[in-house]
Amino acid sequence: MVKIDEQFMRSVLNIVDIIPFGRVATYGQIAKIIERPRNARLVGKALGKSVSYGKHPCHRVVTATGRLVPGWTDQRPMLIAEGVPFKDENHVDIKQCQWQGI
Questions:
Q1: DSSP per residue, 39-90
Q2: N or C end of the chain: which has fewer CB within 10 A?
């Protein structure tokens, strides 16, 4: 089992911090950028612990289909405030708003 170490956490948060206002990235996209392409789920777990590392725009991270985090009621309003387009209540329009990354 792969664990979330300090280096992994910092790598994830460094990428999250550069996702532009009004754009989203996917867990898999972040995993690829940090050269850990098989660890998309671990990226999600790391983001769940991000509150311990200060304030980061984690609301800009969604699944590959654009799905929001289940149960995180603040994510949608935060993305709407940034002008992120939605396909339905639980999915951003990933084709229109995905950040192209580094």
A1: -HHHHHHHHHTGGGG----GGGEE-TT-BPPTT-TTHHHHHHHTT--EEETT
A2: N
